Amino acid sequence: MKKPMIGVLPLYDNEKESYWMLPGYMKGIEDAGGIPVMLPLTSNKEIILTIANTFDGFLFTGGHDVNPEMYGEKAEDVCGELCHERDVMEEILFRQAVELDKPAFGICRGLQLFNALLGGTLYQDLPTQLRTETTVAHKQQPPYNKPAHKVYIDKENALYRIVNAESLEVNSYHHQGIKKLSEQLLAVAQAEDGLIEAVVMPQKRFILAVQWHPEFSYTTDRHNFRLFEEFVGACADRHESAM
Residue 2 has what pLDDT? Predict the structure, then answer.
């Protein structure tokens, strides 16, 4: 079977005006049997549509905060650094992936982006806006391959089938999160404080997003490697079906 080609959304350093990438995003795909390719950062719709039609699937990486304008709010002082070009590119690319039924795997920002684009909302800053008593460490200190808290997985859904576990110990590095869940998504895992930690789009081949960072821990945690394996497998199936 031919290895699927998978587009990986680039990280961007505003200060240095440079693209960059965490090796775990790329190596996780490669180790699971795919060919990762870091995409350019562009708002050129023609280029993005070509990318959408060329690759077998897409990994939506972490990074900048999602612009609150995408879910009908204004950015508050607690909102972090934004990247307009990422928002533009990723919106077009995600909507195309949904339309073409191509696999999309979201990590951290990726989960927040999927929810915002599909009509949900976000907490702009969990420490100041999540109205619940919590001892969950949503923004841990390094090393990031160590678990920070538990997530509880609902049975009878795609994530449970992938990891075959009712709970996972996961790392955590984020200050935003899902506030109102999109009606098009299904929450499949939650933290101890009730924050949604994973979602799927049930009617699609493979649209899955997690709030934690499997790119840091997949080499030491089999459950997180299974996420990459299942994603790459879905991309391979999409490639075969298109031939």
Answer: 87
